[in-house]
Design goal:
Largest sheet: 4 strands, antiparallel
Helix content: 55-70%
Number of strands: 9
Distance between the termini: 13 Å
Strand order of the largest sheet: 7-8-6-9
Length: about 775
């Protein structure tokens, strides 16, 4: 790009500034109208890592054996026993109510009152069976005693009924798509219905109601996320105060904040036009866009105040800022946008949407803050009095800049780089402990004392099953359940997994068949074996219906259902690794074992997808940054000075996540990308100004001192402003927001310190070996 092009572009733009600003206003009105239509959008299918092998199994057998979008409703009797007329009446009504929760698959609702929960017993003439609660049930002492016996005979103790008879469970699954509308269930409507129609009606003097499931998680997060706006408002006020103090003009502050808010409005409006909503766990992305917009806007204010302090009028100062900041700003924001796009390497729809939203925000900042903001600033009523006021403040921090500029000399650079190396070493060791996935038993986005996590703890403690399920599908020949080799292989795998730490209990067809076989032999435990004769296997499998979820229609697919104690990353890894190791060690010519369905299967696939994409993603991010720097600076040395602090902050962020118990997952990925983005901004602005001061007889340290005088205040202000705003999130009622607030505060401050302290130290040492030279015709003036 020829050096003269930018000044010509600036003159043309400023000549038609009113027309440009009218277009800007019209676009804002239109996109603001579209943004008003934005909906919170959460779908279980959007969380699935589509290309992972586990998901092929999941989708193939979802209709037959259920997916992972499961709901559990546990009712705990306040009298201590479910065997009372009052509690059984509540349980019956709650079961009936569950059928009518929007999106519930009625064929998969189970409780002791549903006809798909049956018992089998041995009688004198053979077998007898029926529903656990018969259609003729009366809540008399005799009827209740019959229910108690049927529960014991059904094998549901510990599953649908707690071992001490104090609680009962209702289990349900959501349909993949509503057969009437063809749409996926609205998880927020489901969550609202669960609260209103179940907890609202039946949580009272007779029973406590506990509810788990993906819709309830999303509903609780969305409810808690309402506080995001409150903290955004607080951050907005803090930002306004600091920017006003820096720019000494309320008009400048209102202009910057207004344009930054408009950037977010444009982003949300375009998302609606592109057919996107916003996920509750991505709701912080607009605020990240706002933060990066502020960081670029502060550079405009810094340049304006410096130029006016030299005696230029507001229009000339704004034009000078446009000319000076356009190229480094575009370079930094393009690097940001491409960096966010690398997140699409993780093949999860919700992550791809997050990536598009963040990248779109970066592109919009180019339009709003590099073009529109200087035009608006040129119209502000800032006259000679303002210039005189800013002239008095110019140079007040010269003592600080001289102290920092020492880092550009060997005297300061060597200790600074040595400290950075030591910090990097310690951080690298700690960063290895950062996990991919969840590190808590409950939902880590919510506090441990939240209603949902308390419900999860209760159900986990009370029942042998829970919402955390992983299923392995055993594929065999048609009528495989009457082939001894097939069912024996499944049984051996079931036994192996039952003894893996982290597996609470298991359920499979061979287990049920052994119970039936013993029943044909007077219930003798010695006969709880799998007979080798296929005719006897027919007899053992005949009573087991497909509605149990233990086999498909032709018995060619049989799931092994494993209930895990939690969904922590280490539990998931242990279970899946144990399963895959068993598959390799025990190959079978007749049976193929395939992982995985169930919500834990989805989590395992997601964790593995994130883990596999993490390194390539980081390489692409830094590759984009390197390419952008090479284009701008035409040399490797400035690239090293910009990238090394980014690498250090990335490793430190991983170490902080490990120390705080925050796993890398879909909701925390934006912070990792943002850390690189903010650092790129600082580095490119700083080295673009440094380039303009190189040569002319100045030493490198002198050039850096002049750079600090022009950009140092803006960088410090940006870092402190953003950190002051996000640190308020630590007080949020949503743990996810509090964690992100802490991480973002660290990232903003660390990148600021890296740009101001570490980059010049590295540059100073490089300059001693190979002096920096001014690059003409690329970065402008």
């Amino acid at each position: 790009m020829k050096q003269a092009f930018i000044p010509r572009l600036g003159e043309a733009l400023f000549a038609y500034r009113r027309a440009v600003l009218i277009l800007f206003a019209l676009l804002t009105l239109g996109l603001g109208f579209e943004a008003s239509k934005l909906k919170i959008d959460a779908s279980f299918d959007k969380t699935l890592p589509e290309s992972h092998p586990y998901m092929a199994t999941f989708k193939q057998y979802q209709a037959q054996f259920g997916g992972a979008n499961r709901i559990l409703i546990a009712l705990h009797s306040k009298s201590g026993s479910i065997l009372t007329p009052e509690f059984l009446d509540v349980l019956k009504k709650a079961t009936e109510e569950t059928y009518f929760i929007p999106g519930v698959d009625r064929s998969r609702v189970t409780s002791i009152f549903t006809p798909n929960v049956r018992f089998i017993e041995i009688v004198r003439d053979g077998f007898a069976g029926g529903n656990v609660v018969s259609g003729t049930f009366k809540p008399t002492p005799e009827g209740i005693e019959e229910v108690r016996k049927n529960i014991l005979k059904s094998g549901q103790l510990g599953r649908l009924v707690s071992a001490d008879f104090s609680s009962a469970m209702i289990s349900a699954e959501l349909v993949q798509r509503d057969p009437a509308t063809g749409e996926m269930p609205d998880v927020f409507k489901v969550a609202a219905a669960l609260e209103k129609n179940l907890r609202g009606k039946y949580d009272g003097p007779i029973a406590d109601v506990h509810i788990l499931g993906f819709p309830k998680v999303m509903g609780d997060i969305a409810d808690a996320a309402g506080g995001v706006l409150k903290f955004f408002g607080l951050a907005f006020l803090i930002t306004a105060g600091i920017v006003t103090f820096y720019g000494r003009s309320l008009a400048l502050t209102v202009t910057l904040l207004g344009v930054s808010v408009v950037t977010v409005i444009w982003q949300l409006g375009l998302l609606v036009l592109f057919g996107f909503g916003i996920d509750p766990l991505s709701i912080l992305v607009p605020f990240l866009v706002f933060a990066i917009a502020i960081s670029h806007g502060v550079q405009n204010i810094g340049t304006l105040t410096q130029e006016m302090a030299k005696g230029h009028d507001v229009k000339a100062a704004s034009l000078a800022g446009f000319n000076r900041l356009l190229i480094p700003g575009v370079g930094a924001l393009v690097a940001d946008a491409l960096g966010f796009l690398t997140i699409t390497l993780i093949d999860v729809p919700s992550i791809r949407e997050l990536s598009v939203a963040a990248s779109l925000g970066m592109v919009l900042i180019i339009a709003t803050h590099l073009f529109v903001l200087p035009l608006l600033m040129s119209l502000l009523p800032l006259g000679p009095e303002y210039s005189q006021r800013m002239a008095k403040t110019y140079g007040r921090l010269d003592g600080l800049w001289r102290a920092i500029a020492v880092l550009a000399t060997p005297k300061g650079a060597i200790p600074a780089v040595a400290i950075a190396v030591v910090v990097f070493g310690f951080a690298s060791v700690e960063a290895k402990h950062r996990a991919v996935g969840d590190l808590d038993a409950g939902v880590p986005e919510l506090w441990s004392d939240s209603r949902y996590n308390k419900d999860a703890a209760f159900i986990t403690k009370t029942f042998a099953i829970g919402v955390d399920i992983i299923q392995v599908i055993a594929e065999g020949p048609k009528n495989g359940c009457v082939d001894h080799d097939v069912v024996e292989a499944i049984d051996r795998f079931d036994y192996h997994m039952r003894n893996v730490a982290g597996v609470r209990s298991t359920l499979s067809l061979p287990t049920a068949m052994k119970i039936v076989n013993a029943g044909w032999n007077e219930g003798n435990p010695k006969w709880r074996e799998l007979p080798r004769d296929s005719r006897v296997l027919v007899r053992a499998s005949a009573p087991i219906e497909t509605s149990t979820g233990l086999l498909n229609d032709d018995c060619s697919a049989m799931p092994i259902i494993m209930f895990t104690v939690d969904h922590k990353a280490e539990t998931i890894d242990r279970v899946t690794n144990a399963a895959e190791a068993w598959f390799k060690a025990h190959p079978s010519p007749k049976v193929t074992f395939r992982l995985a369905t169930g919500n834990v299967g989805v989590m395992a696939a997601t964790n593995q997808t994130v883990r596999a994409a993490e390194t390539p993603m980081l390489l692409y991010v830094y590759g984009v940054v390197l390419l952008s720097c090479l284009v701008m600076f035409r040399g490797l040395a400035p690239c090293v000075c910009v990238i090394v602090p980014l690498v250090l902050v990335s490793v430190l962020t991983d170490a902080i996540m490990a120390l705080l118990g925050i796993g890398l997952k879909t909701s925390t990925l934006p912070v990792a990308a943002l850390g690189v983005g903010i650092g790129v901004d600082y580095g490119m602005y700083m080295f673009s100004r440094l380039n303009s001061h190189l040569g002319g007889g100045r030493s490198f340290a002198e050039a850096y001192l002049q750079t600090l005088r022009e950009t140092g205040s803006s960088i410090l202000l940006t870092g402190l402003t953003l950190a002051a705003g996000t640190c308020t999130w630590i007080l949020s009622g949503l743990r996810f927001q509090a964690d992100m607030g802490l991480l973002l505060t660290f990232v903003f401050v660390a990148n600021m310190l890296g740009a101001v302290l570490l980059s010049p130290a590295i540059a100073g040492l490089i300059d001693r070996v190979r002096p920096f030279h001014k690059v003409e015709g690329v970065i402008g003036h």
